[in-house]
Design the sequence.
């Protein structure tokens, strides 16, 4: 019964990491330059989940397989006056992030997080009532 | 021992049903039921209640019934019946000890 | 054998077996909940109906035989992958509501069985102590 708590913890970590990545996407929705100041729009990131715990994939649980970058096209916005615009076409390359998609993913991640918390509470109450057999 | 005690125990009169105070000298013979018979029947009753409760719990465990309240009631009844019998036994043992102390 | 038969009377062994089942099922349901977003994950479950059927047959057998001959130790549920109501192409039935309500029912049954077992042990102890409570 105690390894169910490990399972739940792995789920919490995975969902929270996912939430971090989604928040980074939302924060960088208009970022056209990278940290060095070069003209390089922010690429949307996403996580891939797979079953098995991080330390020991044979045990039940979930872990983040990797954080990958979405290779779809950048969005183009026509803004010739912008210093980041392409001199010949006048288009600014914007990150390939859609607010509504990110928002829905954030909702799903927080719902899954809540479910994991409820599951761990239930496990604790079952273990506690088993202890009452002796008392 | 029990037949002699019957004369002094009002419980025997109340629960014995047929016994009346006028039959003090004729304890345990034909006519009403004696306290001894009542006790024997009570043991059988408690045993039946416990078996019913045990059967109800088995039914709940195997999914034959969904009536949780019925099972809990049956268990409580069996429990209380057993406690009653145990209390009666305790009182009888105490009474016997007291009578043993009477010096002749 | 005498003391063992005394301790295994009534519904004690059936309830212990049920406890083992609810613990096992809880682990599977927990794994399903944790993997609700994992692509390609197949949900696992222990069928409650099949287990109850096995229990019923074994209880009938036990009622009709001498005390101490029929036990419950070898009753095992089989882990299966339920395929009803799958809405996603990767085989993962992401129904959070079903998962949470199954888990709640399982936990309630577990706690109820523990209370029944406690009651049973308490009344045996009371008989031994020869005093009420």
Sequence:
């Amino acid at each position: 019964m105690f390894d169910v708590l490990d399972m739940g913890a792995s789920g919490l970590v995975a969902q929270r990491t996912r939430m971090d990545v989604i928040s980074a996407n939302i924060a960088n929705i208009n970022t056209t330059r990278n940290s060095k100041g070069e003209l390089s729009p922010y690429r949307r990131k996403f996580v891939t989940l797979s079953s098995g715990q991080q330390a020991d994939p044979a045990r039940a649980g979930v872990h983040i397989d990797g954080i990958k970058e979405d290779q779809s096209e950048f969005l183009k916005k026509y803004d010739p006056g912008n210093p980041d615009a392409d001199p010949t076409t006048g288009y600014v390359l914007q990150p390939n992030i859609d607010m509504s998609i990110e928002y829905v993913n954030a909702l799903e991640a927080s719902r899954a997080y809540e479910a994991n918390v409820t599951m761990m509470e239930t496990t604790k109450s079952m273990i506690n009532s088993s202890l009452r057999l002796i008392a | 021992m029990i037949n002699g005690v019957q004369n002094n125990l009002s419980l025997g009169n109340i629960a014995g049903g047929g016994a009346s105070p006028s039959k003090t000298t004729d304890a345990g013979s034909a006519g009403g039921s004696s306290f001894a018979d009542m006790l024997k029947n009570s043991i059988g009753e408690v045993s039946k209640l416990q078996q019913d409760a045990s059967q109800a719990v088995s039914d709940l465990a195997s999914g034959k019934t969904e009536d949780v309240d019925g099972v809990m009631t049956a268990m409580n009844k069996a429990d209380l019946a057993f406690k009653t019998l145990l209390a009666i036994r305790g009182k009888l043992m105490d009474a016997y000890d007291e009578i043993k102390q009477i010096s002749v | 054998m005498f003391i063992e038969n005394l301790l295994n009377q009534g519904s004690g062994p059936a309830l212990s077996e049920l406890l083992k089942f609810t613990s096992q099922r809880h682990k599977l349901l927990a794994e399903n909940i944790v993997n609700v977003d994992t692509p390609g994950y197949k949900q696992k479950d222990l069928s409650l109906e099949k287990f109850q059927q096995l229990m019923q047959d074994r209880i009938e057998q036990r009622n009709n035989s001498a005390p101490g001959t029929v036990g419950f130790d070898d009753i095992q549920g089989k882990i299966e992958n339920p395929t009803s109501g799958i809405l996603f192409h990767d085989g993962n039935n992401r129904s959070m509501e079903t998962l949470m309500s199954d888990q709640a029912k399982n936990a309630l049954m577990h706690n109820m069985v523990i209370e029944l077992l406690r009651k049973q042990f308490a009344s045996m102890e009371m008989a031994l102590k020869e005093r009420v409570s």
